[in-house]
Amino acid sequence: MTDTPRPSRDEAEAAIRTLLRWAGEDPGREGLQDTPGRVARAYEEWFGGYGIEPETLLTTTFSEVEGYDEIVLLRDIRIESHCEHHMAPILGRAHVAYLPRRRVVGISKLARVVEAYAKRFQIQERLTAQIANTIDRVLEPHGVAVVIDAEHQCMTTRGVHQPGVSMVTSHMLGVFRDNPATRAELLAMIGDRQRR
Ligand SMILES: [Zn+2]
């Protein structure tokens, strides 16, 4: 984060009018008059992650798990992020797994952690690592695995124009990194879904 003060809403809307002019538009024409305000509101939604401290999402845990000591996997979490190089959407799916040590969290909380980091300017590699490291730090499980499969619109709609190409990243910690059998079990659990 930088120390420069956050610009005002008016300054943000003026910047959007500048971009419209730079693209060749007349920001004063009827159809565009409310566009800067709409874009500013959309930014509040797309980049709402800056206002969330992801670790706080994982503070409520449950310890009565009857000795459950197998993989917990949340599959196909929708990823809606933006690349920090082109400010273009990154759309895809995340699979988040952990092997609990005594404590588990509500599954919706894992999805909220994904969302808190996705709703920022990102590169997919860092997004993947941040999600895994946060779960690892707060829950201290035996292992964490995060796999993200996403399309980058900066690549599909411009530049090399490669629609249908997705990028897969993974970040494995603990037993998922160190134990090939556990990692293979996880990849089979994820793969089941891919083939359906
Ligand atoms: Zn990009």
Automatic annotation (TrEMBL):
Chain sites annotated for binding Zn(2+): 83, 86, 154
Enzyme Commission code(s) on record: 3.5.4.16
GTP cyclohydrolase I domain residues: 13-190
GO MF entry, a single one: GTP binding
Gene Ontology annotations for the cellular component aspect, listed alphabetically: cytoplasm
Reactions catalysed according to its record: GTP + H2O = 7,8-dihydroneopterin 3'-triphosphate + formate + H(+)
SUPFAM superfamilies in alphabetical order: Tetrahydrobiopterin biosynthesis enzymes-like
Pathway(s) this gene product operates in, as recorded in its UniProt entry: Cofactor biosynthesis; 7,8-dihydroneopterin triphosphate biosynthesis; 7,8-dihydroneopterin triphosphate from GTP: step 1/1
Keywords: GTP-binding, Hydrolase, Metal-binding, Nucleotide-binding, One-carbon metabolism, Zinc
Domain of life: Bacteria
Enzyme class label: hydrolase
Keyword Nucleotidyltransferase: no
Complexes and interactors: Toroid-shaped homodecamer, composed of two pentamers of five dimers. Homopolymer.
HAMAP family per the UniProt record, alphabetical: FolE
Protein family (similarity comment): Belongs to the GTP cyclohydrolase I family.
NCBIfam families tied to this protein: folE, PRK09347.1-2, PRK09347.1-3
Protein name: GTP cyclohydrolase 1
Taxonomic source organism: Endobacter medicaginis
Higher taxonomy: Bacteria, Pseudomonadati, Pseudomonadota, Alphaproteobacteria, Acetobacterales
Gene this protein is translated from: folE
